[in-house]
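quick one, 281 residues, struct below
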Amino acid sequence: MNDAIEQPPVKKRLSGTTLRVVTIVPLVPLILWMMFTERRLPWRVFIFTAIAIAGYELMAMKVPSPRSLRIWGSGTSVLFAYTILFIDTATALYGVVLLIILGAMVWSLLQEDPLHDASSRIGWLLGTPIYVGGCLAAVALVRDFPPTGAWVFLAMALAWGSDTSAYFVGRKFGKTKLAPRISPKKTLEGAAGGLTASVVLAVITSFFLPKFGVVDAIALGILGGAAGQAGDLWVSVLKRSSGVKDSGGILPGHGGILDRADALAFTAPATWAYGHFIAGF
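---
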């Protein structure tokens, strides 16, 4: 008689790479449709949703309690982005900035404990809408550059193409640490590979964009690639100083919205600035 107890089969967990692919692939057709459709509203609603979640994630990292502060940071981030996208006047922008400042002051009085954290709370109540709302609003702004959606694709290519190339080049050839205290695995060799990829992708994209030549592509490739790597490091600073691995868990395998949009939040404003002030859109 066999007295051995049969063990239940162990469920195999998806690898990190597989989980990332399974999470993002079903979203790709919807994102592409929103990017390139002539209707502006779906893309802006999508960006507002991402901003609301990212603002909540950032406040949850830097000001863990109370929950009401996270909601305020999320709401003011959306409000700041809304003002940029729909109102676009200096008076309206001033009014929103004033509201954010006054709100931070009021919250600092209502949430006075612990007192030694008050300056940090005020700083993030002021900084979250400007960083999250201001930077990610550019992802909506560049969609309006002709042809519709192409400049969003360019900004994404600069951000994620640089990030992906930097990872693989650094993994293969990396020896010199880029910022060991912030992100120990990043290397100068990887950063150079990422910048090279950004330039190449920008040059390829330039053949499909009006008023955007090869010289423009090289300049924006360097600017956008560097901005994307700075954005990546910036979010690494936020997470490391908060003692967390990911900003959130809404995207399995990727983390939170901030994890996925860290580079794009810097690359999109750089792309918008170049397209608006240099290319003249």
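The two ends are 82 Å apart (CA to CA).
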